[in-house]
Amino acid sequence: MKYRKLTATGDYSFGKGLSQFWIDVPDAVAQAVTTRLKLWQGTWFLDTTVGMPWDTKVLGFFTGNVRDPTIRAYISSTQGVLDIYQYSSSLNRNTRAYAVSASLVTSYGLAVLDEVILESQPQ
């Protein structure tokens, strides 16, 4: 698996050849999971069916029973993820922010998914 690294601000990094890529390492899978989680369903103009259904399955009304199973299934469907070793999530009802953390068993070893916080839908 080859995955372009992101900068501290979340942009793709360019200009330094292969050092700008994660290649066959757990970090590649962790970054793939993170970027997939941050893609809201319906926001990619080429295919509005892809992305995480945050509005309808996680942050919407009456979603308490489907939140975590939906996120876990989405994480598990990411290329390179073999299993979810540890998983935790929390909801801030005042801001409707949702945070996800996980440890993943990947094709390349154990990867730690730092806390991914989703606060509001992109404009």
Describe the structure.
With 123 residues, the chain is α+β, with helices and mostly antiparallel strands. 23% of the residues lie in helices and 31% in strands. The protein is built from three helices and five strands. It has helices spanning 26-38, 54-58, 67-76, and strands spanning 2-4, 21-23, 81-92, 97-106, 109-118. It has a three-stranded antiparallel beta sheet, with helices on one face. Strands 1-2 form a two-stranded antiparallel ribbon. Strand 4 and strand 5 form a beta hairpin. The chain is globular, with a radius of gyration of 15 Å.
Shape: globular
Note the beta-strand portion: 25-35%
Q: Helicity, in percent?
A: 10-25%
Q: What are the segments in which pLDDT stays under 50 over at least 5 consecutive residues?
A: none
**Secondary structure: number of strands:** 5
Give a quick account of the main beta sheet: strands, pairing sense, barrel closure: 3 strands, antiparallel
What is the CA–CA distance across the termini? 31 Å
Task: Specify the CATH class.
Answer: Alpha Beta
Whole-number radius of gyration? 15 Å
CATH topology: Nuclear Transport Factor 2, Chain: A
Give me a quick take on this structure.
This protein is globular. It is 23% helix and 31% strand.
What secondary-structure arrangement, pairings included, does this model have?
Elements: E1 2-4, E2 21-23, H1 26-38, H2 54-58, H3 67-76, E3 81-92, E4 97-106, E5 109-118
Antiparallel strand pairs: 1-2, 3-4, 4-5
